Amino acid sequence: MAYFEHEGCTLHYEEYGHGEPLVLVHGLGSSTLDWEKQIAELSAHYRLILPDVRGHGRSDKPREPYSIAGFSADLVALLEHLNLSRVHLAGLSMGGMIAFQFAVDQPGLLKSLCIVNSAPEVKIRSANDAWQWFKRWSLMRLLSLEAIGIALGGKLFPKPEQGELRQKMAERWAKNDKRAYLASFDAIVGWGVQERLSQVACPTLVISADRDYTPVALKESYVKLLPDGRLVVIADSRHATPLDQPQRFNQTLLEFLTAVDTTTQDH
């Protein structure tokens, strides 16, 4: 367990393995535990760095509004703290949004980018969008974190044999700080960098579950805006692909990273 300070906030991160640095950023209401099924395999090849986003896990939960740009700035501070010049960066869900923000703000700090079940914007464009977000926003304020965790577990891991994953999800969600969780949720709505995707200079892999919340077609449309983007769809998976299809996920990410590192060495 390691910590660093940024803007008066103490932030937690974990490190495993050696080699080229690979940073993995978790999703909303989660923590470094999003990546528990990646650590052993990925740290055999890379120096794995797993931060807890501000307001999450073992990081401080300051009572203030959060923003995706602010989360990205925390990530820049972590790289400075570790004296890292360029890294591979992967993010899941909200972590993917943070990674997109980082990629357009700090293209020179990235060797590669991997976006998992995420998007470069969350814009409310129609009455239906507004209604869907309002419903989610209201439920999050009304329901206990335990209730949200149980509901999410059932949605993310519906198979009979996924009981252990459902249980873990419910337990982990209940440990969230509700105010920090809601502040992070508020940071997502209305955020977007889609119009800046041409600034993402590095090779970019977008991984989409076939049954993610947002359709594969959405990922196909924004991958076209990336100068060096490619899409891989993982079958029989939902929003938490690194947990429900870890072997496929690890293999897909490692193949991409190896190709990037090989190309870089050739130049």
What do you see in this structure?
The protein is an alpha/beta fold. The protein has one domain: Rossmann fold, CATH 3.40.50. Helices cover 43% and strands 18% of the residues. Strands 1-2-4-3-5-6-7-8 form an eight-stranded mixed beta sheet, sandwiched between helices. Helix 3 links the parallel strand 5 and strand 6. Helix 2 crosses helix 3 and helix 5 runs antiparallel to helix 6. One of its GO terms (cellular component) is membrane. It comes from Pseudomonas chlororaphis. One of its GO terms (molecular function) is 3-oxoadipate enol-lactonase activity.
Brief overview, please?
This protein has 267 residues and is of the alpha/beta class. It has one domain: 3-Layer(aba) Sandwich (Rossmann fold). 43% of the residues lie in helices and 18% in strands.
Provide tags for this entry.
single chain, 267 residues, alpha/beta, Rossmann fold, eight-stranded mixed beta sheet, 10 helices, 18% strand, globular
Helix content: 40-55%
CATH homologous superfamily placement: Alpha/Beta hydrolase fold, catalytic domain
Overall pLDDT score? 95
Counting DSSP E segments of at least 2 residues, the number of strands comes to 8
CATH topology: Rossmann fold
Largest sheet: 8 strands, mixed
Keywords: Hydrolase
EC number: 3.1.1.24, 3.5.1.-
InterPro entries: AB_hydrolase_1, AB_hydrolase_fold, AB_hydrolase_sf
Domain AB hydrolase-1: 21-134
